[in-house]
Amino acid sequence: MKLGFLVDLNLCMGCKGCEIACKVENNVPLSSWRLRVKYVDIGVFPETKREFTPLRCNHCENAPCERICPVSALHYLENGIVNIDSERCIGCAGCMMACPYGAIYMDPESNTADKCTYCAHRIESGMMPACVVICPVQANIFGDVDDDTSHISRYIMEHQGDVQVRKPEKNTNPKHYYVGGGNQSLNPLAYERIEGYSLFDKITHLEHVGNPNEGVIDRFLKPFTGEEELDNTSMMDWKGSSSSEGGH
Amino acid sequence: MESTIHATQAVVTLDVPIPQIIWGWMITLNMWAKSIGTGAILVGAFLLWRHKKEEMPNIRWAMPLIALVFLIIFLFFTMTDLHQPYRMINIFTHPHWTSAITVGAWMATLFLILVFLMTIIGVGQELPGKPFKGCKLTAWGSKKGALYDKLYPFVVFLAIPVTLYTAIIMGESSARELWQSPTEVMQMMWAALMAGSAALILISGNWSSEARRDLAMVLAIATFFSFMMYMGEYFFSFKSAEGEATMQYVHAGGPYNIEFWAGMILGFVIPFIIAFANMRSDNKTMLRFAAILSLIGLYMAKDVWLKIPQMLPLS
User: Fold this and answer.
1) How far does the CA of residue A126 sit from the closest CA of chain B (Å)?
2) Which residue in A119, A177, B146, B262 has the fewest CB atoms around it within 10 Å?
3) Is A201 in contact with B17 (Cβ distance < 8 A)?
4) How far, in Å, CA of B156 to CA of A41, rounded?
5) Shortest Cα distance from B153 to chain A (angstroms)?
């Protein structure tokens, strides 16, 4: 069994329901995302087009994050899911350096790496991932890509020629496919991130990684001072994220 | 908007903020300190092979001591940069051998232990004035001169993979294409030879001029080839779209451009000229000046190389 994901970008309408469902299902803290939907605008008014691209872990067959993890916190499950054991993670961020898709984040509450697990806990109970269940247009298709009769396998076969993965040149063999994707939606170098062009905020980059309120010394003192409970309010106190960097 | 965004261009109009620099100055310092730690051992071995130890009266205790101090700095910042520093023990209790981080941590720890033993013996035997008179460790070390000579070849041999494993970590960091280059391996080696010779130059005041000339030669060769490799990377970055986009942070001006060229001139060009001149005429002060400059410049070059690939959006 090899579980895979397919997103039909022709169907996706950018409602971000999957993003929210993921956040709720997995208690993903503020400033972190396991799944996000990116909007890219193409063209000049009035000839414009907006593309929506849901981005999550690709659960690569040849996962660089699994290879670089020094303590096997990132590991393969038998069904092909690249899972993470946050109890073992040392927070070296090697996986964040290795993942070509930027799918791994440093959880500000646990100070360990985390990412999409295809809702492994739900799958174990025979349920679909939260983002699949919530999608109002069934743009998210999930299943066993080793099984030729599964919905995802049939969908891939029906859309031969229009099925893509992100960064195939990285030889990671991703198990996350896109139908109807263009260069602008799948290639991060094909678009610009310009300060001020975002719809709802002007922040393009986070200057901190992990908990912005926790200094290096705090990491050492934490076991002796007791775990400070973090909630969303404390996470909203962070400063310095109004970066002037716009990328290119 | 119409006048600035062309029809063929695309703009992200809604996304989450993406993290910027993940491995920051602590990792730069980590790599820089490791270069000095292993480089002092490698260059010291070359000098001891070329010259009698009497020509370099303090080398047997000062060389391992420098290596020890900088290896401790390297390991301290390695641990400090972890988001869960106390879990570093997991590398030893749950090792994952495909990871260069694991292999490197094991080798670096073994290297540190061996260098520590050499320091105890070197200090116990040869430090003038014996300031650690009451110390049992140095008293033990003072009787183990033969062990020092037996350990040294293993330490020199181990210094090579300890120097190079960071390049393998960068090679495994497949999201950052600028680091995906075999030249990283040689760059690490040149950095170690450069930093090692620079560190030894600073303690070579009472050495023979021949030994110092050899140090100047190593510094000149290391700065020259290291500079050439950086120039190669700078001008050949068009090998891939991602590499080119990364180098734009240097090519297009701005703070990384300034840091890069300041590092190149301070750390490589000027030290090369001074060290090359010192191969003919021995000038201790100028050579020390070159050594300090090369250490500063090396830090700057490593800092730029570490940070710019992390500025690129990955998705």
Assistant:
1) 30
2) B146
3) yes
4) 57
5) 29
Close Cβ partners of B286 (under 8 Å, ≥ 6 residues apart): B274, B277, B278
Q: Which residue in chain A has the smallest CA separation from B92?
A: A71
Strand partners, A143: A4
- With CB atoms and an 8 Å threshold, state whether A70 touches B91: yes
B contacts of A210 (beta carbons < 8 Å): 83
Taking the C-alpha atoms of residue B184 and residue B167, their distance in angstroms, rounded to an integer, is: 5
Question: What is the spatial distance between Cα A23 and Cα A16, in angstroms, rounded to a whole number?
Answer: 11
The answer to whether the Cβ–Cβ distance between A96 and B176 falls below 8 Å is no
How confident is the prediction along chain B (315 residues), in pLDDT tens digits per residue?
444 566 567 888 888 887 879 999 999 999 999 999 999 999 999 999 999 989 999 999 999 999 999 999 999 999 999 999 999 999 999 999 999 999 999 999 999 999 999 999 998 887 766 667 778 888 888 888 899 999 999 999 999 999 999 999 999 999 999 998 888 999 999 999 999 999 999 999 999 999 999 999 999 999 999 999 999 999 886 678 888 999 999 999 999 999 999 999 999 999 999 999 999 899 999 999 999 999 999 999 999 999 999 998 898
* Residue from A110, A111, A112, A123 nearest A81 by CA: A123
* CA dihedral over A243, A247, B4, B7, signed as positive or negative: negative
Interfacial B residues in 181-240 facing A (CB < 8 Å): none
Closest residue, chain A, to B97 (C-alpha):
A70
ipTM of the complex: 0.91
Domain boundaries, chain B: 25-311
Peptide bond into A46 cis (omega under 30): yes
Yes or no, beta carbons of A71 and B85 under 8 Å apart: no
CA-based nearest residue in chain A for residue B77: A216
Q: Which residue of A has its CA nearest to B94?
A: A71
Q: Å from B132 to nearest chain A CA?
A: 32
CA distances from B117 to B61, B64, B93 (A): 11, 9, 24
Axis crossing angle, helix B25-50 with helix B59-81, rounded to the nearest 10:
160
Per-residue model confidence as pLDDT tens digits over A103-121:
999 998 889 999 999 999 9
Work out the pLDDT band at A201, boundaries 50, 70, 90.
low
Please report residues of A whose CB lies closer than 8 A to that of B22: 93, 96-97, 106, 209
Taking domain A3-191, whether its CATH number is 3.40.50.720 is answered by no
Contacts of A212 in chain B (CB under 8 A): none
